[in-house]
Every structure is written in C-alpha cells, then in structure tokens.
C-alpha cells in the first residue's frame, strides 16, 4: 500500500467508526435518549456530517473545542447572517470549548449549524430527522 492508500484506508475506517458511533447513540426506541455530536467542528474535506435519526424526547448535545457555537437553522442552506431571530434560533452562542444541548419536542426535520463566519459553508451543519 502506498502512503496515499493508507491515508484513504484510515479515512474510511474513521468514517465507519463515526457511522457506528452515530447508530449507537440513536438506536434507542425509548424517548429520552441522549445523542452527542462530539467533536462539533468543521468536518474534514469531503466528509460532511452524516444525517442522524432521533426520537421525540431525545436530546442532542454538541461538544467542541476551539471557537464554535450552535444555531437551529430552517434548512440545509447556510444563512447569510446568523442572528437569534426567527427562523433562526441560537442554541449556544460562539465561545471557546463549549457545548450546547437541544431537546427534540416534535417530529420533523431539524438542521443545526455553527454561526462562526464561514463554518456553515465549510460543512459545519447537520441534519436530524425526528420521529
Ligand atoms: Cu464552528
């Protein structure tokens, strides 16, 4: 294997681990489960956040190091400007090494993104389908 192939294999293994971790946190059929997005960061190039599933009553906690935050946004389109005003909602203002939690109180599709300049456009956004 070349160095490049090794890199690709490592990336694939990490992706599989990530998928397995995602499934682990969301398989529960009981309400009140906790899901984490950790680390919440700009994803590596070409590896956007996978869509996630959750149930009404579950909550998701985003955890990060560096400067990030969490906003609820209405779709996968990154807003031009992040402000805590409908249809956007601030879950956690940008800060260093923080976390933010959202509880899912209704079925539907939810999108979350980082409000720091350029982060959403760089792929720091995630979709949840709540059932
Ligand atoms: Cu960010």
TrEMBL record:
<dbReference type="GO" id="GO:0009055">
    <property type="term" value="F:electron transfer activity"/>
</dbReference>
<dbReference type="InterPro" id="IPR003245">
    <property type="entry name" value="Phytocyanin_dom"/>
</dbReference>
<dbReference type="InterPro" id="IPR008972">
    <property type="entry name" value="Cupredoxin"/>
</dbReference>
<keyword id="KW-0732">Signal</keyword>
<dbReference type="Pfam" id="PF02298">
    <property type="entry name" value="Cu_bind_like"/>
</dbReference>
<feature type="signal peptide">
    <location>
        <begin position="1"/>
        <end position="25"/>
    </location>
</feature>
<protein>
    <submittedName>
        <fullName>Mavicyanin-like</fullName>
    </submittedName>
</protein>
<feature type="domain" description="Phytocyanin">
    <location>
        <begin position="52"/>
        <end position="124"/>
    </location>
</feature>
